[in-house]
Amino acid sequence: GENVEQHPSTLSVQEGDSAVIKCTYSDSASNYFPWYKQELGKGPQLIIDIRSNVGEKKDQRIAVTLNKTAKHFSLHITETQPEDSAVYFCAARNDNYGQNFVFGPGTRLSVLP
Amino acid sequence: DGGITQSPKYLFRKEGQNVTLSCEQNLNHDAMYWYRQDPGQGLRLIYYSQIVNDFQKGDIAEGYSVSREKKESFPLTVTSAQKNPTAFYLCASSVTGQGNSPLHFGNGTRLTVT
Known about the structure:
heterodimer; A: 113 residues; mainly beta; globular; B: 114 residues; 7-stranded mixed sheet; 4-stranded antiparallel sheet
């Protein structure tokens, strides 16, 4: 079945620096890749997503890139702010998995003021 | 405001008791899901329902049961057969169970069984 790996598991950056989180997936049948931000005690919130026919998508300070050949996709956050501190999850939707999502294990991002 | 409501936020039960977690959505979404989250792990799918009166097992369905009698409601029962029930439970919904339809999550229920 599909397996999604995510690195790093923890990431600390200085306020204003950039942060990059990378995910890899194993099954080429995966075709939709959302990223979620989860704050303490809350449910994950969608922050950006990308479809398999697109290489890059940007929304203000957040961007996602997808390399289908290498089966990896990355989240880029520029000009980080303390409120970006949270756990970030990547996910892949897979046609061979009932079109359900497989999630990565998460990255805890800390933005230091 | 539209959204997903999970209640209660915290739930405590004694071992051997069944407990039901509530999930209600007013987004008019067809598909609903239950995930379990343990510290340091990703979300694992317990059950999902793509349409009313139909549901399917996910990866870790043993010890859990669900019903989908109404479009807006998808309650999860954690039975006494679930060996490690203490966890954070997340309910989610999506417009459909297919394509590029993202998940919308509730704020979860933290269940503690002693």
